[in-house]
Design a protein that fits this description.
The structure holds 2 protein chains of 2 kinds.
Chain A (H helix, E strand, L loop, with lengths): L3 E3 L3 E4 L5 E7 L5 E8 L3 E10 L2 E4 L6 E7 L2 E6 L8 E8 L8 E3 L3 E5 L1
Parallel strand pairs in A: 2-11
Antiparallel strand pairs in A: 1-3, 3-8, 4-5, 4-9, 5-6, 7-8, 9-10, 9-11
Chain B lengths: L4 E3 L2 E5 L4 E6 L6 E7 L6 E6 L5 E4 L2 E5 L5 E6 L8 E8 L8 E2 L3 E6 L1
The chains are: A mainly beta, B mainly beta.
């Protein structure tokens, strides 16, 4: 059974803290993604990675960075958390040559910044 | 920036009714996906359509990709409480890419 796991389901952090969100996939997928999900806005892509140590900015990268040192792990880093980064964060992975380009999602991390 | 607008944003219907959800854009997409997300879970892929005018069926769900590949619809026949969830469309503008833009979402509630 394919699986994408995220390190925490819920996180509460203070403004200015450095926050790490971890994502691990067990499907040997080349591609990994970080999205944030806000009501009425759908999913917005923060960063994605198509290979180890490779990354590209998505639509809303400001205030975030990422790290992919191993194929199965993709980390999202909030360098200095702010209240407007309170959101649901979803990690996903996909196989480059899949016929239907399916993305497999983790259960999400609900981050609250106070 | 490409946008995918979904309508309606919210829908509450009785069990057994039919419904249609729309996904529209001014941009052309090489492929379009529909996902369903249940509370506390990540989205799960329902279907991918790649050809203009294509129609795919998944039990009581019918998906159509517009002829011009700018829009799509999802029709549910005889909705059931198990269909409750957030429906998201996602489009890719470049053929063969693994990067998708997601729509704004339609939250469906089916009452027993």
């Amino acid at each position: 059974d394919v699986k994408v796991t995220q390190s925490s389901r819920y996180l509460v952090k203070r403004t200015g803290e450095k926050v790490f969100l971890e994502c691990v996939q067990d499907m040997d997928h080349e591609n990994m993604f970080w999205y944030r999900q806000d009501p009425g806005l759908g999913l917005r892509l923060i960063y994605f990675s198509y290979d180890v140590k490779m990354k590209e900015k998505g639509d809303i990268p400001e205030g975030y960075s990422v790290s992919r040192e191993k194929k199965e792990r993709f980390s999202l880093i909030l360098e200095s958390a702010s209240t407007n980064q309170t959101s649901m964060y979803l990690c996903a992975s996909s196989f480059t040559y899949a016929e239907d380009y399916e993305q497999y999602f983790g259960p999400g991390t609900r981050l609250t910044v106070t | 920036t490409q946008l995918l607008e979904q309508s309606p944003q919210f829908l509450s219907i009785q069990e057994g009714e039919n419904l249609t959800v729309y996904c529209n854009s001014s941009s052309v997409f090489s492929s379009l996906q529909w996902y369903r997300q249940e509370p506390g879970e990540g989205p799960v892929l329902l279907v991918t359509v790649v050809t203009g005018g294509e129609v795919k069926k998944l039990k009581r769900l019918t998906f159509q990709f517009g002829d011009a590949r700018k829009d799509s619809s999802l029709h549910i026949t005889a909705a059931q409480p198990g269909d409750t969830g957030l429906y998201l469309c996602a489009g890719s503008s470049v053929s063969g890419t693994y990067k998708y833009i997601f729509g704004t979402g339609t939250r469906l509630k089916v009452l027993a």
